[in-house]
Amino acid sequence: MPDGIGHMTVERLVVGVVTGAHGVRGMLRVKSFTADPADLTAYGPLTDASGQTEYGVTVKGEAKGQLLIQLKGCTDRNAADALRGTEFYLDRALLPETDEEEFYHADLIGLSAVTEDGMALGTVRAIFDFGSGDMLEVSDADGKVVLYPFTRDVVPSIDLAGGRLTVVPPVETEAEKGADQ
């Protein structure tokens, strides 16, 4: 449902994705998107994107930074392999409220990115973490994509109700320009 200028409030959030099978008895490896990965099932029942299918998930352990889970009805490796890419969703209302300086990634997707003087840069399409902090992917009207560090210096203000965030593009140094050529 709309929430301001063209921004949509997301009712269901992806909290995990199946990355593959673990062993031969149907266990799954799952990348959790919750702040504490072990909290994947702590907020309520996990469902598909529509909320119609509820998954019976039991966390069995952790290996190589991923959760090991048993999914009700998944009893062998073939069934587990077939679930690769399955996303687990949670009703947004079940999640804790964010602090003033915290945001769910889903809240930022679709926001307009503008400069401090109001010039449109594009729309936030994705948020990535390549290991050194979150990066916002902003796509302009022509499809050109630019990544911006999601830091207070680069993104000094976020107006969820207004559907936009302010970006102060980092200044590229001469050394960085030379490295790009």
Describe this entry's structure for a reader.
With 181 residues, the protein is mostly beta strands. The chain has helices spanning 77-82, 105-108, 174-180; strands at 12-22, 27-32, 46-47, 54-55, 57-63, 66-71, 87-91, 112-114, 120-129, 134-139, 145-149, 157-159, 164-166. It has a six-stranded mixed beta sheet with strand order 11-10-9-8-13-12, with no helix packed on it. It has a five-stranded antiparallel beta sheet with strand order 5-6-2-1-7. The chain has a two-stranded antiparallel ribbon with strand order 3-4.
List keywords for this structure.
disordered N terminus, single chain, 5-stranded antiparallel sheet, 181 residues
Topology, pairings included?
Blueprint: E1 12-22, E2 27-32, E3 46-47, E4 54-55, E5 57-63, E6 66-71, H1 77-82, E7 87-91, H2 105-108, E8 112-114, E9 120-129, E10 134-139, E11 145-149, E12 157-159, E13 164-166, H3 174-180
Parallel strand pairs: 8-13
Antiparallel strand pairs: 1-2, 1-7, 2-6, 3-4, 5-6, 8-9, 9-10, 10-11, 12-13
End-to-end gap: 45 Å
**Percentage of residues in strands:** 35-45%
Order of helices and strands: EEEEEEHEHEEEEEEH
Give the helix/strand class: mainly beta
Note the overall shape. Answer: elongated
Regions with little confidence, pLDDT below 50 for 5+ residues? 1-7
Strand order of the largest sheet: 11-10-9-8-13-12
Number of strands: 13
Q: Note the total helix count.
A: 3
**Over the alpha carbons, how many angstroms does the gyration radius reach?**
19 Å
**Residue-averaged pLDDT, rounded?**
86
Question: Main sheet, how many strands, which sense, barrel?
Answer: 6 strands, mixed
